[in-house]
Amino acid sequence: MITTIIRSNSGHIYVEDQKNVLHLEILNEQYNKDEFVQLCSTLKMFLESALIKKVKYYIIFHTDKLGVYPLSCYTIVKDTLDELKPTLEKVLHCSCVLVEPNFTSHILKFFFSIYQPVRPATVIPDVKDAPVFFARDENQNTYNL
Known about the structure:
With 145 residues, the protein is α/β, with parallel strands linked by helices. Helix content is 41%, strand content 24%. The chain has helices at residues 33-53, 71-83, 85-91, 103-114, 130-135; strands spanning 2-7, 11-16, 21-26, 57-62, 92-98, 121-124.
């Protein structure tokens, strides 16, 4: 079963309930700051709620439709992730960033070179690669909620 957390013209956050996989999907190449901030805020609230409910998640960031967004949006993402660091250490198993091999993928790889994830993370070219990464023993969060 899939549960939508929020959907806008810019993005969609939803959960595969059976697998505890949280998806954050960018839906178009047009950057809308208000919608982007709302997506980040909703992600933050969802993960803080997961801590209270004592549920752990895998995350897939679908950035394959990401356009050339301004660098300020990456600052918003980095600030959100930095704010969530204590929560992510507890509720996140690991994450995958889905990219297509294009200019945007280089920007995202650069982003992850300056942002150090608190849990294992990788860049993948196909969503089918995520379950293999998720299944690795070293990518399981053993923190006792």
